[in-house]
Write a structure and sequence with these properties.
eight-stranded parallel barrel; alpha/beta; single chain; 289 residues; NanA; TIM Barrel; Schiff_base-form_aldolases_CS; N-acetylneuraminate lyase; lyase; cytoplasm; binds ligand NGF
Length: 289
């Protein structure tokens, strides 16, 4: 469980139904072309929070069936309905997912005891490891070093997907918990995070830019910071262009330009307009040739 993991994009048809063939093609592209080390399935990028429990299970099944043992798989099972989260955790574990992850519970202002109870409950009947999915910008849940430490007391919680620009906390976590896995979640900050000793990264743009992300990690590990800076700058030119054109829509349109049936986003996310489609084609040909 180390290295570059793609936060897997999903494929929906015109009507918003899961496009199985498209999802399989996305998995293949990530393994064969982006050459990532693993896939993070049903995360934010997979439009998880707009799927029904049955659809989430279907996505877990399709991805496992297509990827087999070729790469590591992490199943994001977090849900506000604790029974759903537990059911998904058992389901993904039975399918052979090597790790679970669960977003911190959001919307209601849960206190820390409630958050801790959520993780311990998801894990009580399941024989698998768990990465906490911390993304304060989207959940509003900010945990401090001590609180992470309390969650880590559960031995099944083996790490965190840390999607925050707080490098002070990241360094403190690395120092305090050298045995836990830390994955960074912002692709544009991969270089500074890797200098601080993360074990890997999980990100949306790796669907199309996974090889360069791996090269950034390699450059940092070999001590070649000039090369790492050059690669991060190139990646950030791409990420700036993607964010400016609509994040998920653009990743899907870039994949389509590469011959992958990445489909559309699900409502209420919009379909891309003509300008976004041509913008994505230009991004694909300018940055990803
Ligand atoms: O899309 C977001 C929203 N963040 C992703 C990633 O952290 C999400 C990040 O790659 C994720 O891992 C998941 O799908 O569960 C950004 O898209 C990227 O750094 C561009 O800003 O914050």
């Amino acid at each position: 469980m180390k290295g570059v993991f793609t936060a897997l994009i999903n494929s929906f048809d015109e009507k918003g139904n899961i496009n199985e063939q498209g999802l399989r093609e996305i998995v293949r592209y990530n393994i064969d072309v982006s050459q990532v080390d693993g896939l993070y399935v049903n995360g934010s990028t997979g439009e998880n929070f707009m799927l029904s429990p049955e659809e989430k299970k279907k996505v877990f099944e399709i991805v496992k069936d297509e990827a087999g043992e070729e790469v590591e798989l992490i199943a994001q099972v977090g849900a506000l309905n604790i029974f759903e989260a537990k059911e998904l955790a058992a389901y993904a574990t039975d399918l052979g997912y090597g790790a679970l992850s669960a977003v911190t519970p959001f919307y209601y202002k849960f206190d820390f005891e409630e958050i801790k109870d959520y993780y311990n409950s998801i894990l009580e009947d399941v024989d698998n490891q768990m990465l906490i999915y911390s993304i304060p910008a989207l959940t509003g849940v900010n945990m401090d070093l001590k609180q992470f430490g309390e969650l880590f007391e559960n031995e099944k919680i083996t790490g965190v997907k840390f999607t925050a620009p707080d490098f002070f906390l990241l360094e403190r976590l690395r120092h305090a918990y050298p045995e836990k896995l830390i994955f960074s979640g912002f692709d544009e900050m991969l270089l500074p995070a890797s200098v601080l000793g993360i074990d890997g990264a999980i990100g949306s743009t790796f669907n199309v830019n996974g090889r360069k992300a791996k090269d950034i990690l390699k450059a940092v590990h070999s001590g070649d910071l000039n090369e790492a800076r050059k690669l991060q700058k190139e990646s950030n030119d791409l990420i700036t262009a993607i964010l400016g054109n609509g994040l998920y829509q653009t990743i899907k349109e870039v994949l389509k330009d590469k011959g992958v049936d990445a489909g559309y986003c699900r409502q209420p996310m919009k379909k891309p307009n003509d300008e976004q489609v041509s913008g994505a084609k230009e991004i694909s040909r300018t940055f990803l040739n």
